[in-house]
Amino acid sequence: MWRARRLAHGPDVVRWSDDGRLLARLRLTDACGRPLCAQVRPPLVEWSAAPVA
């Protein structure tokens, strides 16, 4: 079964990616163990940036 996730982010997150790679860290299941789907917003997703190697 395929479930889609839409990762929500703001304009600050997009600016972080100007110089490198944008990384999103999130769980694939909800608190009940079911697949996480629909739109995922903070704090369920953590954004970070990393330089391109």
Strand order of the largest sheet: 1-3
Instruction: Tell me the series of helices and strands, N- to C-terminal.
Output: EHEEE
Overall morphology: elongated
Number of helices: 1
How many domains would you count in the coordinates? 1
What's the total number of strands? 4
**Helix proportion range:** 10-25%
Q: Note the beta-strand portion.
A: 35-45%
Topology:
Blueprint: E1 5-7, H1 11-16, E2 20-26, E3 38-40, E4 45-51
If you had to describe this structure to a student in words, what would you say it looks like?
This protein is mostly beta strands. The strands form 2 sheets. It has a two-stranded parallel ribbon with strand order 1-3. Strands 2-4 form a two-stranded antiparallel sheet. 11% of the residues lie in helices and 38% in strands. The longest helix is centred in the first third of the chain and has 6 residues. It is elongated and about 35 Å long.
Task: List descriptors.
53 residues, mainly beta, two-stranded parallel ribbon, two-stranded antiparallel sheet, 1 helix, elongated
Write a compact overview of the structure shown.
By secondary structure, the chain is mainly beta.
